[in-house]
Amino acid sequence: MAVFLQQASLVDMNNVSLTDKLANLYGRYTEVEPHVNAFIPERDFKERLFNDANDLLEKFPNQYERPAFFGVPFAIKDLIHVNGFQTQAGSKLPSLTLTSREGSFISKIRSMGALIAGKTVTEEFAYHSITPTRNPHNIEHTPGGSSMGSAASVAAGICPIAVGTQTLRSVIAPASFCGVVGFKPSYDRVTLDGAILMAPSFDTIGFFTQDIESMQFASSHLIPNWRPFFSEKKPILGVPNGMFMNFMSEDVRRVFKNQLELLEKAGYSIRHVDMPWEDAFIAGDSMIRMVHGEMAQIHETWFRQYEHLYGSSVKDAIIKGQTVLLEELEKYRIGQMVLRNDLEQTKMKYGIDLWVSPAQGGVAPKGFEKTGWAGMTAIWTYAGLPTISIPLTKIDGMPLGFQCIDSHGNDEELLFWTKAIKRSLSSE
Question: Beta partners for 394?
Fold first, then answer.
């Protein structure tokens, strides 16, 4: 078993010089990237990196007036356009066809001094394909998908922060598998322009860091209109009843039960709640039909011209999506808002502050075909709620994340209480 892990905390970089940040990035990249394959290969990587650093020094010459992310290396999922980089999106389509100008988020982090470490590997159009990226905890196991490159780059200590996207599970699953913090903000809280989308009614930008303190720091600068939250109370935790709890292995169920018992001993109230969704909905194919239908719309022009270049999984998904009628898509979109409201009403009825569950139904499988399960994540993303996975335990040597979910727009509250939960469980 090969392990490629190293600490890389964002909050520890505040007093690190740009020279040392570059040395750390390039040294770690040179050492572990050939084994982990988190990044899209880049010709003249070192030259570009040091040129960008010099540009930063010219742009921000006064060391006392430098912005929050000055010289911090950001790894960016290769669905998100970055000026100066091609966008391939894990596909064989011509990059000139796919590449466009960067959007507001990338422009924002540049204005805050970020250094673009590179583009990270994704499954084809964030849907499915075999990729070269390996899990830094054990390179014989999947890192998860589709934001695998971003999660692996942080777990391996190459970058202290990385950016991904989530449709059904693509931030939470790789965060759980790679043993890092993965945060998917509320739907549309961060504008996702300048990116190739898979299903616009789901797609949300997400972030990876090694620790919750780094995630709080990053989110307070990256999420618009951030409102600091503080509470002395312990949140009341809700655990879904029904089919949802069947989406996990017996090992995960045992670990989660033990975590709930530890939280109760630490003074948390746990309430098991009948949820406002139908078991048939979360276990059926409605959400994936919605994704397929929106994929077919996104890819309509490209698919007409380049169908022969699409991988079999993505091609099949688009063909299935072509059979989804607009009326069916609209029904699902209305259902998103209904469920979001119903979940809020359920929280109020039972006095729930935070939903909790395992982040995945199992740990990272051996091999690279299976990159995660949507059972523990998809329904929350469908409702547009903010979710986070924090690394708290391992099963057979592989990480398993603990997932916390809050109401739409309560991102600040979610991160505050998740930090407290991690502290309670880590101290036991």
Answer: 399
